[in-house]
Amino acid sequence: MKYDFTYYNPTRVHFGKDALDKLEGELNRYGKGVLLLYGKGSIKKIGLYDRVREILSRAKKNVTELSGIKPNPSYSQVLEGARLVRENNIDLILAVGGGSVIDCAKAISASAFCESDPWQKYWVDFRPLDNEVVPIGAVLTMAGTGSEMNGGSVITNESTMIKEGRVFSAELYPAFSILNPEFTYSVPKMQMVSGIFDVMSHLCEQYFSGDDENTSDYLIEAVMKLLILSARAAINNPLDYEARSNIMWCATVALNNLVGLSKTQDWQVHGIEHQLGAYTDCPHGLGLAVISIPYYRYIYKYGLKKFVRFATNVWGASATGKTDEQIALEGIKALESFSDELGIPKSLRELGAKEEMLPKIAYSVEEGGGYKKLSHEEMLNILKACY
Ligand code: NZQ
Ligand code: ZN
Q1: How far apart are the C-alpha atoms of 27 and 218, rounded to whole Å?
Q2: Which of 84, 132, 143, 269 is most exposed, with minimal Cβ within 10 Å?
Q3: In angstroms, rounded to a whole number, what is the distance separating the alpha carbons of residues 64 and 79?
Q4: What structural domains and CATH numbers belong to the chain?
């Protein structure tokens, strides 16, 4: 482990079929005011809204609601939530939903008592969190982002057309997260596979950088292998508890900082996808899948050793009689076939992108990069290659 680190993750996770039973005890740790945050209605369809409301009333909470949080949550919704926090003596924000709802809860909490413009302070200037915040709790309904156990808050500012991820410090990690894999049974197939590829991409972003021997890369390979097996099982039978529970925990582990410890990381695919999302509003994981393939085909030569390792250790490619380049490309081909197996669209066009958007997307992405730092022109070429 080459680089020193301090590891601390404050989120208490309750995992399993009876995890919701732990909600009342968690609520009792906080004052009366709760802001209940959720999306466009899936929690009502699956009966979870009624169960949560019942627990909130047993715990004698004064509940204020903000619903309709959209996938790829918007800054205007953040400001609306911040106003509700200020006006209703809120002691806890309870996010019930997927990554979008939880990300939005963190953003509302950071913004409610921020004395300057929160967008500028936290998502443009990346200033440290220094104002009062409201604690957050989460009931997760969709596996993918890892937001249930991290400080990430990805918000779209509709007026500037920027989708930006901000990683907050420990005060804004959910204080508790309730993870019942059964709540994910109702996630539509395209959303499920979007979440699965998001997990794969989080693992790739952390893996494809650096070449030193470290615990993190070995953990990543193990999580990738289980994710692939579980994804296949869940496609085959969406009600397979073992598969859905493994996907859910793989998702959390993939982005709760553990597997990225003591490593340089990439995050270029996410940078490009976030801007794709700002322009098209496409599901995050589908955008990642489409961009990943031409991106890795372009950069693999700069990190050949790791791409060979990916092909052999994760996908079981045989090295006999092949050059390193051939093996590396076999690994990328296997990733592409996995995306096909999941039924993920293959082009940006299918995700709603228009050709004239591509330069705007490419030139609004922050330059990052793991094995190769890309120019905006190179990003544009990658977008054209998967258009
Ligand atoms: O609006 P509702 O009714 O909740 O429906 C949602 C939404 O339409 C639906 N859904 C969720 N649970 C369901 C369900 N439908 C039926 N049954 C259920 N049990 O699924 C749709 C997508 O939900 P969303 O929360 O948007 O998905 P996801 O969890 O993939 O979150 C995506 C957002 O997270 C950001 C992404 O950029 C995107 O904005 N990310 C957050 C990260 C973080 N915090 O660390 C990292 C990620 O890389 C990512 O960028
Ligand atoms: Zn992601």
Answers
A1: 38
A2: 132
A3: 15
A4: 12-183 (3.40.50.1970), 189-385 (1.20.1090.10)
Any ligand 1 atom below 6 A from CB of 150: yes
What's the Rg (C-alpha) of the chain?
20
Reported as a single tens digit per residue, the pLDDT across 295-311 is: 999 999 999 999 999 99
The span from the CA of 17 to the CA of 254, in Å, is 21
- Look at residue 130 and tell me whether its pLDDT is greater than 90: yes
Question: What end-to-end distance do the CA atoms of the chain give, in Å?
Answer: 39
Token pair of 135 as six digits: 């604690």
Q: Is the beta carbon of 284 within 6 A of some atom in ligand 1? A: yes
Dist. CA 221–CA 232, nearest whole Å: 17
Nearest ligand by distance to the CA of 194: 1
Identify which of 216, 175, 191, 215 has the alpha carbon closest to the alpha carbon of residue 141: 191
Indicate if ligand 1 lies below 6 Å from the C-beta of 72.
yes
Give this prediction's pTM: 0.98
